[in-house]
């Protein structure tokens, strides 16, 4: 190699890291966590009510990845498998909370929506009216999304927020690609109607 030349640095893919994890290279999990903890938390926090619950689901997701690394299919995408694990955990948690809600007497704050936007605080806008409009719009979109049936909400989150392709979403949900598309279009129509009723285009 001539002086001044640098060898190209090969960045391992998610799938490479998982294969290394299967081979006993425990540090690979730390790299995967560093890559995916942010996107995964944003996804999960839109499906569960409380930030603490979202963190628990994310932690359990990575533990499952560690425990079930051998079950990862060669040729599959890591992100698809990860979202599938996280989604199942979110569903389990929702079912458990539903059972408990039938048994426990709820307090006076029951039914009050918990904010689900856990992004870093925005800088203070110089235009208070514009800032208020932005906050109101974001809240309306969040409420419209939360009001969708679970099947439609999951598809919209995976497509619009996480950027997965229809085929990948079908793999995550274990349904046909045509089903994914019909759920997405139905969800989008419902959201447009909900927002239009509030004068939001």
Folded structure, characterized:
This protein is mostly helical and about 200 residues long. The protein folds into two domains: about 10-100, Rna Polymerase Sigma Factor, Chain: A (Orthogonal Bundle); about 125-200, Arc Repressor Mutant, subunit A, CATH 1.10.10. It is about 65% helix and about 0% strand. The chain is built from eight helices and no strands. The longest helix has 26 residues, at about 80-105. The radius of gyration is 20 Å and the shape is elongated. It starts with 13 loop residues before the first helix and ends in a 5-residue tail after the last helix. Mean pLDDT is about 80; it is low at about 100-125.
Number of DSSP-assigned strands: 0
How many distinct folded domains?
2
Separation, N- and C-terminal Cα atoms: 59 Å
CATH superfamily of the largest domain: RNA polymerase sigma factor, region 2, helix turn helix motif
| Assembly form of the protein | single chain
> CATH topology of the largest domain, what is it called?
Rna Polymerase Sigma Factor, Chain: A
Content of β-strand: under 5%
Order of helices and strands: HHHHHHHH
Radius of gyration, CA atoms, in whole angstroms: 20 Å
Overall residue-averaged pLDDT value: 80
The CATH architecture term of the largest domain is Orthogonal Bundle
Unreliable stretches covering 5 or more consecutive residues: 100-125
Per the principal axes of the C-alpha atoms, what is the gross shape?
A: elongated
What profile does the largest beta sheet have?
none
Helix content: 55-70%
């Amino acid at each position: 190699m001539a002086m001044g030349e640098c060898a190209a640095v090969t960045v391992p893919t998610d799938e490479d890291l998982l294969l290394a994890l299967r081979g006993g290279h425990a540090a690979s999990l730390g790299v995967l966590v560093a890559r995916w903890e942010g996107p995964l938390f944003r996804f999960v926090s839109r499906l569960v009510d409380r930030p603490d619950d979202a963190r628990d689901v994310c932690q359990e997701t990575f533990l499952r990845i560690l425990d079930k690394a051998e079950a990862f299919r060669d040729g599959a995408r890591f992100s698809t498998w990860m979202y599938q694990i996280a989604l199942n955990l979110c569903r389990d948690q929702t079912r458990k909370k539903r059972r408990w809600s039938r048994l426990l007497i709820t307090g006076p704050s029951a039914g009050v929506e918990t904010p689900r936007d856990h992004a870093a605080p925005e800088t203070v806008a110089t235009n208070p009216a514009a800032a208020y409009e932005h906050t109101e719009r974001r809240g309306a979109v969040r409420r419209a999304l939360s009001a969708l049936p679970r099947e439609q909400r999951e598809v919209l989150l995976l497509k619009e927020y996480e950027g997965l392709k229809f085929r990948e979403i079908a793999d995550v949900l274990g349904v046909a690609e045509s089903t994914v598309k019909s759920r997405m279009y139905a969800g989008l129509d419902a959201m447009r109607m909900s927002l239009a009723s509030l004068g939001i285009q």
